[in-house]
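Two proteins, back to back. First:
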Amino acid sequence: MWFTAAELTEIRSAFRQQIAATRSRKPHARRIRKAKPRPVPPLDTDPAYSDADVLTTQGVADAFGVSTYTTRLWADVGTLPSFRTLGGHRRFRWGDVTDWLRRDADATR
């Protein structure tokens, strides 16, 4: 089936009108805002912990006031020193955590 140039122009304009009538506007994509860093409380003055204490991911998250996901990210990246148990769980030595906190505080000054 062959169309003339005038017929093709008419078909194209009808097609464009139909598309324009049915086209809906896309909603704008939401921008993800970066979380502002929370002030970290001074942990080394807490008498309930000693350098020999070993903390879980939840314990460190509670101490810093962040989620366990954030604590895991810090450990995976190597920002927060940690070690793994034979079962594969992350553990943190209290002395390593306080040393890391001191180094981080010195670096931001």
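And the second protein:
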Amino acid sequence: MLERWKFALLAILPALWIFIGLWGGYFWLDWQHKPAVLNPNWVLYPINFGLWIYIACAAGLIAYLSGARLFATLFALLNLYFMVAMTFLASMAVTGTWL
């Protein structure tokens, strides 16, 4: 039986997409503000690499939680949807290019 404290490690996955959403909200590019100040290039680095970090963390957690691989996989896939959405929305907010 898997120890219950190991399931707490799965909280890393929602924390990643919440961080990306907060990052995009903090560095929101407001075109209504005159003069509009563009964000530096380093603001996009956590957004660009966040999805890859998420995939690495999800794969590592699925491999680590050997007694609950099915649950960890389903939890990671559910949170992947939110991670992709937050990455998309945060990148639009930071660059100011809305689709």
